[in-house]
Amino acid sequence: MVMQSQTSVRQASILFAIFCAIYFFELASFPLSIDEELAAFRTDASVWVAQGRWGAYLIETFIMPQPILPFITPAIFGVGCVVAYLLVMDMIGQSELSLTEYACFAIFCGFPTWFFIVEFYSNIAAVGIAFAFMTFAVWLAIHQNGSKPILQFCCAIAAGAFAFSIYQSLAPAMLTMGIAIAVLRALRGSEESFPKNLVRIGFLLIGSLMLYAVGLIAFKAFITLKSEYFDSLLQPAVLLQQPLMVASRAFTAMADTIGLREHGYGATLWAIPPLLALGGAAIFFGLSRQRMVLTAAAAVSLLVPFGLHLVSAGNMPMRSLVGVPIAIWLFTYAAVDSRHSKLRVPARVMLMAALFQILVIQNSYQASSYLAGKHDALLAASVQQRLSLAPGFDPKITYALSTFGSRPFTTVYPRPDNSTVGHSFFEWDGGNPWRIASYMRLLGFTNLTGATPEQVDQTIVRLATLPVWPAPGSVQIDGSIALVRLGETPSYANQQALKRAGNR
């Protein structure tokens, strides 16, 4: 027992070291992303209930009331990934990890889709906890050999429901993981049948969703906030009206995600498609029986994460694809662990190439985020300095910030369309004064707040005539309102304010 514990600690330490190597920048620095400037000042976590994430509400209310913290938030995600991977290894009967298992962990926790969640401090710690709970639920469902199987399965459902309450995209990820475990157990000659394992996962998924829904109803009975963004995601009617368009968008998203196109990540990931092909071949030739069923199931596991695209008009953010790393890991692990050297050797070569490409993508994003952060800090200081030199400035007044247009950040490093990576606080939402003011307050410039709609309407005509930043006169004061014209093109909010001014 002592030897087992020592082995587990050693394996967990090595896995966490691998995680640290992949996400070193996130652990060693403090790169702020869009939305974190608002979350840092949030005192009421009810916004999570409005998005259906009552588990995230509990975590932020009672465990981490200030989630915008360096190191600890990505570290918690890393611990969640390590726990999940060790549970997965136990489910497939791999008690001693070799170099193969360690290398595949880099895919499991470092596949680029994860980065689009890791960049958000407000989400990542809770998602790491949820990922561990989701995997634990699958582990409990698969290991139904205890003296109290019904109680154990109820615990599995409770763990799954809690995971979904933190991040609903873990529901398709649970199905993906269940299929992956069932396939690998069958390849390793498990005594339990492949269909039996799938049935367990199916009941687990249904039960967890039902319990999650009960919890959501209970929380919404007390918290009645709504989220326009979250409510706008689900558009199932579009699938019935334009099925070809939705299917095309889902296929494009899949092509972007698995490396068939460079658009998704802004960089190449050509080693993943060969790994998928080699993994599919390894599964097909791994057994003489059930080969067609297992290969088809593996293919389905790759499609499941994109199921949400079918009910969202094909427009789900890439960060929602938490099941993709699990599916990619399934194919990769099957290939590099194959008994056939003609599949195993090229798969290991492709795995090394894929890991290098993933590191390049991760570091490119980190470079983009770092430079965007430098740009924004310097721009915030410049705006503050211009404001202090503007006629009429009073250091005792807290000014309402009213902006016109945006100030984009340009860089040679990738800025993925479906992410905030490399984007400026001064350009998001077309130049949102509330975001900009909150960001500047976070930097210590505390004499700014966002302008009210009435204040915007009051100053929009004058704003539209100011010179564009950084020209002299692009920052002015109008009573208690600070006017900043950041760009030539008006944002949507600016356009609406100009229309209201024209109708007076």
TrEMBL record:
InterPro entries: Glucos_trans_II (IPR025686). The chain crosses the membrane at residues 12-34, 68-87, 99-118, 124-142, 149-167, 173-189, 201-223, 264-285, 292-312. Keywords: Membrane, Transmembrane, Transmembrane helix. This is Glucosyltransferase domain-containing protein. It comes from Aminobacter anthyllidis.
